[in-house]
Amino acid sequence: MTGQVADLTRLGRCLGCRGKIKVASDRAFVSCPLCGLTLVNTPGIADLPAVVAPKAGQRACWEALVRQLDLPSREGATEVRASRLLLAPFWRHVDEAKRSVSRAAMVVSAADLSPVGLPRLTPERQRISGLEVEKRTRTGDAMGRIPDEGQELAGASVVQAMLGPGGPGAPAIPASVADSPTWWQLVYYPVWSFHYVVYNKEHFHVVDAVSGQPIGPARPLRIGVIASAAAGSLLAGFLLLEPVAGFAAALPALAISLAATRLAMQSQRGA
Ligand SMILES: [Zn+2]
After folding, report:
1. Residue 131 CB partners (closer than 8 Å, separation 6+)
2. Where are the alpha helices (DSSP H) in the chain?
3. What is the H or E stretch that residue 97 is in?
4. Residue 254 CA, ligand 1 centroid: distance in Å
5. Rounded Cα gap, residues 104 and 119, in angstroms
6. Residues 90, 108: contact at Cβ < 8 Å?
7. What's the mean pLDDT in 146-166?
8. Count of Cβ atoms closer than 10 Å to residue 225 Cβ
9. Which of 113, 107, 122, 251 is nearest to 193 (CA)?
């Protein structure tokens, strides 16, 4: 190679420690040099959300699902069509004055992944069986560390934030991360998503990739569930089969809300 070497770094803000940092601009995941958390690096977005470190692998998560649902083990009865490590976005309401390892805070979903079996966390619904996102995001230490700049996340899909934090008394868009002691922190939480077939009936289910627990409610397939799975098949199909880059192109309506979220996040810099 000849000529000038391009500058492959950019400035950003770690949403784990709120430090201003310089990161490689050509990597999907980077490590914060200040707090050590692994961050999602989206081109054009200054804020870099932190990722909770996965601890349970694909095999352990699938076996937990088989056990909990008592899936039939007879030859050919149960078949996994696809599995994928998803990094799901959540908003966490942070109050720096009250931040504590023992005090729970509100966490709401930043994308609707119910078609693949991840129920939404909302201000009214903070508890979902098996999902430990609130507990694991209370502090940077609770989030854990991923070695080698997130190398083990190589095959993971980052789901873009498509929903604002909203909720009663909350701003429609996140408050400035620069100054305010209370703000909405975007965090990414790992789940294993399974698309599987039991006696020719399709199922989607996710397992918490930190605790290794299936995320409930786990129940046998019913007609209503089949209908909602079919309605969500576009999203589900994308999540299981397509790279994340194709998302906006495939789903214009969601792309619009994504664009709104991006604008909201970018506006934080000027606030
Ligand atoms: Zn940091």
Report:
1. 118, 119, 121, 208, 215
2. 58-69, 133-136, 140-143, 147-150, 223-231, 233-241, 247-250, 252-270
3. none
4. 29
5. 19
6. yes
7. 85
8. 16
9. 113
Structure tokens at 227: 């209908």
- HSE, CB side, 13 Å, CA atoms: give it for residue 106: 17
**Residue 171 is encoded by which pair of tokens?**
């701003």
Query: From the CA of 70, how far away is ligand 1's center (Å)?
Result: 42
CA of 145 to the centre of ligand 1 (A): 11
pLDDT band at 264 (very low <50, low <70, confident <90, very high): very low
pLDDT in tens, 209-235: 999 999 986 444 454 544 554 445 445
User: Which DSSP string do the residues of 38-78 spell out, in sequence order?
Assistant: EEE--TT--EE-EEPPP-S-HHHHHHHHHHHHT---STTTE
CA 40 to ligand 1 centroid distance, Å = 12
Look up the pTM and report it. 0.78
pLDDT (mean) for 99-123: 86
Q: Ligand 1: distance of its center to the CA of 33 in Å?
A: 7
Q: What is the 3-state secondary structure (H, E, C) of 220-259?
A: CCCHHHHHHHHHCHHHHHHHHHCCHHHHHHHCHHHHHHHH
158 strand-pairing partners: 87
User: Looking at this protein, which amino acid is placed at residue 128?
Assistant: I
pLDDT of residue 136: 95
Average pLDDT, the chain: 78
End-to-end CA distance of the chain: 41
108 CA → ligand 1 middle, Å: 22
Task: Please report the beta strands in 96-159, taking only residues with DSSP state E, as ranges in sequence order.
Answer: 107-109, 157-158
